[in-house]
Fold these 2 entries.
Entry 1:
Amino acid sequence: MNVKGNTVLITGGATGIGLALAEAFANAGNKVIVCGRRENRLTEAKKKIPALYTRKCDVTNEADRKSLFDWIKQDFKDLNILVNNAGIQKMADFTTGAKELDKPGDEITTNLSAPIRLTALFTPFLMKQKSAAVFNISSGLGFVPIAMMPVYCATKAGLHSFTVSLRHQLRDTTVKVFEIIPPAVETELGREEGDTEPGYPGVKPVVVSDAVMKAMAADQYEIPAGDAKGLVEGSCRDFQGTFENLNRW
Ligand SMILES: NC(=O)c1ccc[n+]([C@@H]2O[C@H](COP(=O)([O-])OP(=O)(O)OC[C@H]3O[C@@H](n4cnc5c(N)ncnc54)[C@H](OP(=O)(O)O)[C@@H]3O)[C@@H](O)[C@H]2O)c1
């Protein structure tokens, strides 16, 4: 697929991996729109990449999704790429009642229902474009779960499964379906309001965006970046051994 001349919407594109993707797409000669809930982060992103278009939107809210779609149809008629990147992550300990699940944000709604709903909303529109794509961001943890984040991993496994089916359903259309499978990446994922801990440990977000641009040019639809390759391969070769190795805590 051509890596330039596209119009790209990235959910959660004001920070982390989404922002790295926004920068990579913008530098490659694409028009880029990012959305997210926090106005200040959208403003910061626009300061860093002045060509960005930004939109406040909570992807878990049906009215927000609808108004995002209406705005795109009106102002960005050439939109041809949807990147479902927005996500949240929590620990959850079921031996103590999994009380963490009551903290703000629902992983199933954010990481699984919202990308599915957005895809349903945008696909007929994307199918009218000569060349189009949906990129879903799953995780190496969708292939082999880390048990301390059981719901997160379940949402990513679900998103992987959904992506495989979507690719099959859209195989005779102009819409290509990519799955980005990041390893641990140094971002704010899993941090709570007011956290002073350093960001999530892992590789820099640019490792993922570099892998995505290369894979897109090569029409390689599954994109495991960095160490995520080990989890994807391990899930087929030796699921139990890979799981035990990841969960040695
Ligand atoms: N970091 C990793 O190690 C890693 C590994 C594998 C996969 N991933 C996946 O990569 C994606 C990006 O995460 P990241 O690591 O870059 O973390 P991040 O910096 O925290 O990015 C998540 C983004 O999603 C947005 N978001 C969250 N809930 C939203 C909602 N309801 N509506 C709209 N936007 C929302 C956040 O902005 P607002 O809070 O302002 O809305 C934020 O910009 C996620 O899907 C994550 O699961 C990350």
Entry 2:
Amino acid sequence: MSIARDLYQLQEVDTALEANLQAQKKVSAQIGESQLVLKAKTKLAEEQKNLETLTAQQKSTEWEIDDLTNKIKETEKKLYGGKIFNSKELGSLQQETAELKKRRSVFDDKSLGLMDELEALRKAIDSTKDELAKLQTLWQMQQKQFVVELMQLKAAQAVNETNRQQIAALIDADTLFTYQELKKRKGLAVAKVEQGICQGCRITLPNTDLQRARSGGVVRCSSCGRIIFLA
Ligand SMILES: [Zn+2]
């Protein structure tokens, strides 16, 4: 095995290690609370609060109606009870009854309006509950998937790390140092050579360099400085 080949393999493992780390970060970021679930929960809480308010309004409206109905009964009893003969008194009782009925009809309308609102709100609550249940099921499934993905990535990373140690052990310290320095500066330290052309900078390499590389030496591209690898 040539050192260039070892270095190239080291580079491939390093690339895999970095890609794996990025993938782990991406998956980790997706583990946690779901914004969509939180939003649906807030919506449901608001709708339930509105339901309480409207129900209370409806009850007090019903009480008003009952109260007025009792008062109307009383005045009508007086009116038709046959005990009052004074026409002025009868007239004022009639007026009182009419006014009470007028007030009650206002509350009746209010009650009907509230009933419509309550019905619409109950439907909205049912649909929000359905939506929330669906979102929670989906979120739980996704979370399980993310946890599995993360475990798989970590297992693959452990293999990458072992591979790296094994390959690095084959390379002498000076060459390893050169590799690290080049990696820091250029991103990729090793460039493949295809048909005599350095794939790092696209320049045609002189034959002498190619021959030295073929015989197993560590040769660097005269243009970009990368270590060349003849595949
Ligand atoms: Zn080059």
